[in-house]
Amino acid sequence: MNDNCRVIEHPVIQHKLGYLRDSDTESAEFRNIMKELGRLLAYEATRDLDLREDRVHTPLMETAVRRIAKPPVVVSVMRAGNGMMDGILSALPFASAGHIGIYRDKFINNTVEYYFKIPKDSKSRQILLVDPLVATADTMISCIDRLKQYEVGEITIVTILISPEGLKRIHHFHPEVKVVTASVEEGLNDQGYLLPGIGDAGDRLYHTR
């Protein structure tokens, strides 16, 4: 496994992932679990954030405390990334947020961007790039390319599932990008779906199957 990929095997995360895999899990429960996984994975993805020292007054005395020196920017890859966004922002209320709308068009065999908005002060800031599923990684690589045009800082992908093929391609084009995930899957089927996977995350989130 690449040193820049961290698989989080915490029992609580794996327990919740089991419910996402279950085809009997309804959309409302699926949304709640994905939100919870976003919050839990956010802690791991921000493990190395820099801290600064500050001074506060407790009810009894003045003391030193440590606070996040430079809050990250959470960027959701729409639409499925939005299912994790609220959970991550609940864990990181001091973070700002952006959105990228991008998809792979099978007719032109390329990615198409239809929306892009990140905070104006994103230069040099750590990015948490959020998408619950990374299969072929075509859209993820395009998102990283676009973010680098804005001279952002370190990029960490926060995903629930990623394929071995997708992980390899990401680190071929962007070897420094970190990945935090709950599982590296067995592979992809002929339609590009992750195996064993959770199906189409967007459809299951928003009941559009």
Automatic annotation (TrEMBL):
Q: State what protein this is by name.
A: Uracil phosphoribosyltransferase
**What protein family does this chain belong to?**
Belongs to the UPRTase family.
Q: Which reaction does it catalyse?
A: UMP + diphosphate = 5-phospho-alpha-D-ribose 1-diphosphate + uracil
Task: Read off the Gene3D superfamilies from this record.
Answer: 3.40.50.2020
Cited function: Catalyzes the conversion of uracil and 5-phospho-alpha-D-ribose 1-diphosphate (PRPP) to UMP and diphosphate.
To which pathway does this protein belong?
Answer: Pyrimidine metabolism; UMP biosynthesis via salvage pathway; UMP from uracil: step 1/1
* Organism encoding this protein: Pseudobacteriovorax antillogorgiicola
Cellular component aspect of the GO annotation: cytoplasm
An example GO biological process term is: UMP salvage
EC number(s)? 2.4.2.9
Cofactor(s) needed by this chain: Mg(2+)
Keyword match Lipid metabolism: no
The record's annotation in InterPro entries points to: PRTase-like, PRTase_dom, UPRT, UPRTase/APRTase
The entry lists its GO molecular-function terms as: GTP binding; uracil phosphoribosyltransferase activity
Pfam families (alphabetical): UPRTase
Q: Which UniProt keywords apply?
A: Allosteric enzyme, Glycosyltransferase, GTP-binding, Nucleotide-binding, Transferase
Q: Which residues form the Phosphoribosyltransferase domain?
A: 7-208
